[in-house]
User: Fold this.
Amino acid sequence: MSLELNVNLKQVQQLQITQEMRLAIELLSYNEVDLLEAINQEALENVLVEFSQPSEIPLEKIARDLASSRPLYSNFKEESDQNFSFEDFYQENPGIERDLKDQLSGLSLSREDYLIGLLILDSLDDRGYFRESIADLAQDYGIPESSLEKMLKIIQTFDPLGLAATSLEECLCQQTKNSQSQYIIQNHLKNLAENKLELIKKDLDISYEELYQIINEIKSLNPSPLYGYESQKSQATSYIHPEFFLSVDQAGLQLTFSNLAEKSFHFSDSYLSLLRTAQGETADYLRKKYQRALFFQQAIAERQKNIRLVVESIVFFQKKFFSGQGPLIPLTMQEVADHCSLSESTVSRVTDHKYLQCPQGIFSLKYFFPSGLDSNKGSRSKIEVLDLLKKFISQEDKTKPLSDEKISKLFHEEGIEIKRRTIAKYREEIGIPPSSQRKNFLSS
Assistant:
C-alpha cells in the first residue's frame, strides 16, 4: 500500500457574519442619542474605554425617555465565539419582538441559521413585511443568499400567519390553504378590489354563491400581520435631536455634523499604560479589552463616514429645496446609494431615526425621499402635488366643491397625469373630506 500526499484547491462559500460586523451595522442604525448610550454602556463593561458625557445633551434624561420607546444598545459582553449569544445585543422586550425570538429559539437551528433568523426578524417593517433586498443583506453581511432565503421561508411559518411576506399577495396566500382563494389572490386581487366579480366567476367557472364564500374568506385574512401587536419598534421616539445642521450664507450651503459620539469615546490612559507592562492573565485580559475597544472606535468612525456620505448626497440632490429655490424633487434611496457607492439597505439604516436641521425646519432624513409623478415639466414630488391639491380645494366654489374627477382634470391642465383614485388617496392622507362632506360642512 502506497501513501500519496495531494494538494487540492476548493472554493467554498462560508458564513462570515461576525460579532463585530453585527455591532458595526447596529451602530449604523443608531441615532446619536442611542450611540452615546451605547458608548456609555461599553465604558461600564470595558476598562479600556472612558466615556465623557457631552454637555450639549442631557444624556441621562434622554436615555430615560427612550427606555420605553425602543431598545437601546445593551449588554455586549466580551466572550469567546463559543459562548457568544446574540441575546447580548437586545434588551428584554415584552412585545411581539420577544415572542418572535422565542419562536426562533424553539427551533433546532445551527448557530449560523439562528443569527440569520435574528437578522431577518430585525429587518421586518412595522406591518410584519420583509421589504429588504436579499442580495443587499447578503452583501452587507457576507453570507450566502441561499441561507437567507432558507431562513426567510422558515420565519414565514411563524405565528402570526402572513409574517415576513414580501408582498400583499404572498401575505394573504400564507394565511389560507384554499387553492381557489390562493388563485384569486394571485391572479384577481385587483379585480376583487374593483368588484369585477363576473370576470373572476367566469375564470374559475363557479357559481356566485361559491364565489361569495371564497370572497368572505379572503376578507377575513389579515393584510398587516403585526397590526394590533405592541411593538417597541413602531413606537415614536419621544425626543428629537438633530445631528446635522445646514445653513445658507453668501458662500452657499454650509453643512456641519455633530461629533459628540467621537468626542465622548476615549481610551483609558492608565489601563493603556498597564497594558504595556502587564504579564500573564492580566495581559491577556487587557489585550482582549483593547481589541474590543479598538474595533468599537473603528465602528464609530465607519458609521460617521457613511452618514456623512449619505447626508452630503441628500443635500446634493435636494440643493434647490435647501437654497429656497424650489420644492423637494423625487428621490429614491437607490439613487443615493449609487451616488455614494453604498447598498440601498445601508442608506436605509443610515436614515433611520436621524434628523437634519435647516432653515426650513427640523426634518427626518426619510423626509427627503419623496415619491414623484411624471409631468410635462419634469418629475414632480408628492409634496408638491399635495400642496397643489390643497391649493385647488382652497380656491374651489364652496357651494359646489370640486369632485376628485374634476381635481384630476385640473392636474391634467398643469401637465400632471394623476388618476381620480390617487386624488382620493392623497386627499385622505392630508385629512380633507370628499366633496359631499365639504359642501355639507360649509353649509351647516
In short: The CA atoms of residues 198 and 325 lie 52 Å apart.
